[in-house]
Request: fold
Amino acid sequence: MSDFNLCENGHYYPQNLKECPYCPKSSADEPSQQGLPFGGGKGSLDRTKISQDDDDFNTPSFFGGGGSTGQSDLGRTQIYGSQDSYGGGSFSSDFQPSAPSIGRKMVGWLVSFTIDSNGADFRLYEGRNLIGSDTSCDIIVRNDAAVSGHHLTILHRMGQFKFKDELSTNGTFINDVFEEEGNLKDGDVVKMGDTIFKFRSIA
Reply:
């Protein structure tokens, strides 16, 4: 260790350097870094700066929203069509997964690869599940102009899944066939506007 110095913080560094390169620099040593958190300088590169700009809080959090836009109802699933992503992936920053439903048994899913290319699932519960663009729906589809306010109802009753188009403007297609109402079977493909779901039953 004769070729190294030991700084007051316990770092060994080469003798040809005037000061320890691993220790944080004070703001007095580097005037250009004054006002930055964590002291700035080379020694602060191993620290994480957390930005809290206003825009950071405009993205809804998973369960219940966040920031100025967090007006989520935990009893409903909301589907957003934003193309923003986290970390360069395909996950939509406006997407909110299903929230637990109190007092209703989960009986199936709607799975979509048009909302998220990696797949996104939305829970179906026993009883009535209303799907559409209106905020009163159980599953809310946003940013698809071809989806009506109250577009489709999926009803689970006595072990059967029934669907009924709610007089939507553009209709509902089951396995690429225009249908007004009928029964859903596991694996059926449901198309509303430009939004496509695959139906999965666990009941």
In short: The longest strand covers residues 106-112. The two ends are 70 Å apart (CA to CA). The chain is about 0% helix and 30% strand. The mean pLDDT is 73.
